Amino acid sequence: MTTSTNAIEFTVHDAFDPKKYEPFILGQVQWVRRPGDGNRPDLAAGFWHVTPEEAPEPFDLLIEADETIHIIEGHLHIEVTGGESFDLRPGSAASFNKGARTRWTVVETTTEFFVYS
Fold first, then answer.
1. What is the pLDDT along the chain (117 residues), one digit of tens a residue?
2. Cβ distance 107 to 64 under 8 Å?
3. What secondary structure does DSSP assign to 6-27, as a single string?
4. Domains: count for the chain
5. How many whole angstroms separate alpha carbon 95 and alpha carbon 102?
6. What is the CATH number of the domain that holds 33?
7. What is the span of the domain harbouring residue 27?
8. What is the DSSP string of 43-112?
């Protein structure tokens, strides 16, 4: 990973590498940009990896920041309370507003790229 720490010119570059995973609330994460990097507390990005064994049952998730995801591999089913439901597979993307109430099902082992803003 390369990083410039000047707050005005903050940039970060990293490649997807499962060896860089670390524990997350559920599954594992490889941070590309951690919350607070570059003096931007509301902006973060990374790769999230989760297996059906780690999430054997659907789980409810309150979206705590605007979040956009892109599925690299796997299959997630996401239901938005009072709205639509989505089957996300490789190449699919979705974006959720802060405060959305969702229910996630990990159908297959999944890796997604996410951005919180």
1. 655 555 556 666 778 888 999 999 999 999 999 998 888 889 999 999 999 999 999 999 999 999 999 999 999 999 999 999 999 999 999 999 999 999 999 999 999 999 999
2. no
3. -SSS-EEE----GGG-EE-SSS
4. 1
5. 12
6. 2.60.120.10
7. 2-116
8. -EEEEEEE-TTTS-S-EEEE--S-EEEEEEEEEEEEEETTS-EEEE-TT-EEEE-TT-EEEEEEEEEEEE
